[in-house]
Amino acid sequence: MEKKFKRTTVTSALPYANGPVHIGHLAGVYVPADIYVRYLRLKKEDVLFIGGSDEHGVPITIRAKKEGITPQDVVDRYHKIIKDSFEEFGISFDVYGRTTSKVHCETASEFFRTLYDKGEFVEKTSMQYYDEEVHTFLADRYITGECPHCHAEGAYGDQCEKCGTSLSPTDLINPKSAISGSKPVMRETKHWYLPLDKHEAWLRQWILEDHKEWRNNVYGQCKSWLDMGLQPRAVSRDLDWGIPVPVEGAEGKVLYVWFDAPIGYISNTKELLPDSWEMWWKDPETRLVHFIGKDNIVFHCIVFPAMLKAEGSYILPDNVPSNEFLNLEGDKISTSRNWAVWLHEYLRDFPGKQDVLRYVLTANAPETKDNDFTWKDFQARNNNELVAVYGNFVNRALQLTQKYYDGVVPACGELTEYDRQTLDEFKDVKAKVEELLDAFKFRDAQKEAMNLARIGNKYIADSEPWKVVKTDPERVKTIIYISLQLTANLAIAFEPFLPFSSEKLRKMLNMESFEWNRLGRTDLLQAGHRLAKPELLFEKIEDDVIEAQVQKLLDTKKANEEANYKAKPIRENIAFEDFQKLDIRVGTVLECTKVPKADKLLCFKIADGLENRTIVSGISKFYKPEELVGKQVCFIANLAPRKLKGIESQGMILSALNYDESLSVITVDREVKPGSEVC
């Protein structure tokens, strides 16, 4: 039998304050968490929504060194960007804290010290890379080298960003320090470890037997880890940015960020509710739910529960609804490659369209498998669903009420069979949406809410009140009354998903609020109730707006290719005599035309100092013919003639092949006589 809880603590993974939030984070964690919390609040349940920035760890120190600023400067900048964009986007945290706060540092230190004093850690020495130039041990991210799997350069000591393989620093080929560039050496260092193997038996029972209702991806990943056998995991690191390890002999060591960050949920609650925080973390009548991405499953289902259990006074998570990854235009979202749609930029580029993105990310949520976000799909869902279905129905219902009844809800007359059938279709909407939201099936729940709009759109289109009003005005009152009841139901049903649109619709209906428990009723608006002036709920997004976003991504891709360009290896040596066989000359382009029925070919007439010659070259994609007339180009003069599209080509024009496969014709920087040799 399912346990009934008095309250719910909801956490969402702490975004890393090394960059802004992107749509992958939103789809994977924050939108579903916000939907769930808004739903519980609508049901008048006691719920606390905890968020905050994760502000320690090596990537932050790397960025700080690169920019010549302090790590605190880095986290201050991104904490503000993230916090502000969450607020504007409507992620309704009760508290949004940070792991550099005084309360967090004290809480994390106390947590470590409690486990240390209870003998819950194992002290071990190990060999770790050390940079002799800057006299410091190197964390995994401070070591780069060649990936042993895909052989990409610049792989980190914990992961290759190109192929995604998890690594250890010792796996790298030709490792080097990311700080000094020197080759690191191995030195002995001491750290504290959480012996996860000691917790394996109860974790196996708790997850594999007691929580079979968890999502398949969560259950499966946990089972895989447990079946491989858990190993002790370090809880300290040799670093100068983080929370100092609070024991003697730990100078120069900080709490490992994975140990410190989840404690942030507790410290942020403590900051919000200093006198009653324990009720939300230690009372067995409290339900704990973690919303995370799949890269955080092990930390929230195995490591953090082991920490909580070792401490002894905390509740364990009841559910950990984790999503898979969202890709962008067919490619993996990457912060380092700037391949992302950043939330703060979206809010700037699409003012007032928070709900459009919320809708699209939920409709395309990666709940069971990785999914793909494309700007074309974004546009199509807005135009074909929000505008053409939901918005169209609401606008028709409100505008017709304004036109026929001066904005006053008409009285309902006698119902037809079709009216009863329509009303019957949406009477169970509350039960259906609740069942899906309770099971964390947000995509299907939103689809159920949108189904209300489809019912309404079909009803008003089939009933044709604009025609019926000429022959049976009394009948139209019933049609509009039913349409308005459906509209009011939409405002309630979409409240967890599209809060901005629901608020706008409530204002148009001139209703302060709707109770969730009234969802599905047909008397939400009483006859005689006056509506406010109707407005469009959604608006079409035009092609040029979408093209601008696609172009931004294409520009990013080009910039990445340019930044990562590496020249091809030099071919094997040839004898000088072989080079001398090539007769490379300079010629002046007299004429240049496109070759008919050949997209790539241009036909040149070139003065070579002896006579005029014809050369056909495949550079039409990169030049207009008129751009090349008068230029002096380099060409191979003694290449055997060859027919291309029926034209005899007497040589080859030389071009440079750029990183992006574009061609640039090789010219001379000052004028020479046609036929001059290149030597």
UniProtKB/TrEMBL annotation:
Which residues bind Zn(2+) per the record?
147, 150, 160, 163
Ranges spanned by the short sequence motif 'HIGH' region, renumbered to the chain: 15-25
Would the keyword Zinc be found if you checked this record's keyword annotation? yes
Major location category of this protein:
cytoplasm
A cellular component term from Gene Ontology for this protein is:
cytosol
What InterPro entries has UniProt attached to this entry? Answer: aa-tRNA-synth_I_CS, Anticodon_Met, Met-tRNA-synth_bsu_C, Met-tRNA_ligase_1, Met-tRNA_synth, Methionyl/Leucyl_tRNA_Synth, MetRS_core, MetRS_Zn
Q: Top-level EC class, please? A: ligase
Q: What EC number(s) are associated with this protein in UniProt?
A: 6.1.1.10
- Annotated ranges, domain TRNA-binding: 578-679
Q: Which residues bind ATP?
A: 335
Tell me which CDD domains the record gives. Anticodon_Ia_Met, MetRS_core, tRNA_bind_EcMetRS_like
Q: Which GO terms describe its molecular function?
A: ATP binding; metal ion binding; methionine-tRNA ligase activity; tRNA binding
Q: Which SUPFAM superfamilies match?
A: Anticodon-binding domain of a subclass of class I aminoacyl-tRNA synthetases, Methionyl-tRNA synthetase (MetRS), Zn-domain, Nucleic acid-binding proteins, Nucleotidylyl transferase
What domain of life is recorded for the organism?
Answer: Bacteria
The record's comment on cofactor binding reads: Binds 1 zinc ion per subunit.
Give the residue ranges of motif 'KMSKS' region: 332-336
Where located? Cytoplasm
Q: How does it assemble?
A: Homodimer.
Q: What family does this belong to?
A: Belongs to the class-I aminoacyl-tRNA synthetase family. MetG type 1 subfamily.
Q: What task does this protein carry out?
A: Is required not only for elongation of protein synthesis but also for the initiation of all mRNA translation through initiator tRNA(fMet) aminoacylation.
Q: This chain belongs to which protein, by name?
A: Methionine--tRNA ligase
Query: Can you name the source organism?
Result: Paraprevotella clara YIT 11840
